[in-house]
Amino acid sequence: FPSHDIPPFNNETIPVELSQSYVQSQAELKGWDGEQWICIKELVDKESKWKNDADNPNSSAYGLFQMLKTPNGLNVEEQTERGLKYIEHRYTTPCNAWRHHKRKNWY
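The chain above was modelled as a monomer; its predicted structure follows.
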């Protein structure tokens, strides 16, 4: 996936389709397609509605994956790298993360 397709502009909203396409390309590199991709889509939709600049006023959560302590203005590439690493480290798979989210309303 050409990185030039995701502008590295801080604090700029990226179209949902572009964010989804980029996240999907990176998920596929981890072998997360099919059901795993659907779980990522559900999770990110629930967390941020795919708004790369989603900012939670009640915590330090920011971006697509609404991870805590994410600096505001972080570009989609870095948000995706951090988000997918977090899912892999903590839950092994996106569907495990999504199941946890459905039970606890957080992941």
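The chain has a mean pLDDT of 91.
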